[in-house]
Design goal:
Length: about 280
């Protein structure tokens, strides 16, 4: 397991039965030696997920390219973790019409992810589109790589054991403001996956996914208005929710507020069939 060399991180890995290997996803040159020493690579990191800029998603692409090259031509498994945001679609708070399957072309054009009736500010359209383009390039590089058994996994929103991104953000915002926020009427829909089911997808993919396989690790959808009401009950806010505009969601929650406002609707029937996955 990769670590950025701090003693505390290395100790955690050792306690989990893993061998720490020094390297930094943000420094692609440091990945060459570790990638050349293993029988399979599972890439979970994303600078883009943290920083949210087109430049940061391009850094993900650069790191993956270095690891693929270092892996050689033995045909070993290489799994890249993408994300459901690549099918993010903006609305004014209602569910978007399309559930995207594993074979749908990416990146989505702006006319699809930000239709005119959604009235999305142009800078947000440019930033979102500019971020998903290099993510799509990274996916293609993995799926088409000649020397490895390239596999891409797009997880839904992760929950379980207090982990994840969107759900903890929603709970924190609800605690702070005494009501759970949602965009507009609360109809935005996102696909979720429990941590245990997601781990199983990675294990099955390592064992049996053919080269060039795209996988969607999504089990079910929920409307964000319903999720907000549940979070409100959870923290003792009596089920109170607030309908906000996209600008208000951003003002209140930053990038996390925007993430809670975007439809992320993915089908996973092909994934279940290819892996015999029964979440």
């Amino acid at each position: 397991a990769l670590t950025r060399s701090t003693a505390a991180d290395a100790a955690k890995l050792q306690a989990a039965g893993l061998t720490p290997v020094v390297g930094d996803f943000a420094n692609p040159a440091s990945l060459t030696a570790p990638a050349a020493q293993v029988d399979a690579i599972v890439s979970l990191a994303s600078i883009g997920q943290i920083e949210g800029t087109p430049e940061s998603f391009a850094k993900d692409r650069d790191a993956v390219e270095v690891m693929i090259k270092a892996a050689g031509d033995a045909g070993n498994p290489f799994i890249f973790t993408s994300g459901s945001a690549i099918f993010g679609v903006f609305t004014k708070g209602e569910a978007s019409p399309t559930i995207f399957d594993e074979d749908h072309p990416v990146p989505l054009p702006a006319s699809v992810f930000a239709p005119p009736k959604a009235e999305i500010p142009q800078p947000l359209i440019d930033g979102f589109g500019g971020s998903m383009a290099p993510r799509a390039e990274t996916e293609r590089a993995v799926l088409n790589a000649a020397g490895v058994r390239g596999i891409v996994i797009r997880p839904g929103l992760v929950y379980g054991e207090g982990r994840g991104y969107d759900l903890p953000n929603l709970i924190a915002l609800t605690k702070t403001h005494g009501a759970a926020p949602h965009l507009g009427i609360g109809g935005v829909r996102q696909g979720y996956v429990h941590l245990d089911d997601l781990v199983e997808v990675y294990v099955l993919a390592l064992e049996r996914a053919p080269a060039g396989t795209m996988l969607h690790a999504v089990t079910d959808e929920i409307a964000l208005g319903d999720l907000a009401a549940a979070a409100s009950r959870l923290v003792g806010a009596g089920g109170r929710t607030e309908a906000l505009s996209l600008l208000e969601m951003y003002t209140r929650g930053g990038g996390g507020g925007v993430s809670l406002s975007v439809n992320k609707r993915l089908a996973s029937e092909k994934t279940r069939k290819v892996l015999n996955w029964t979440p």
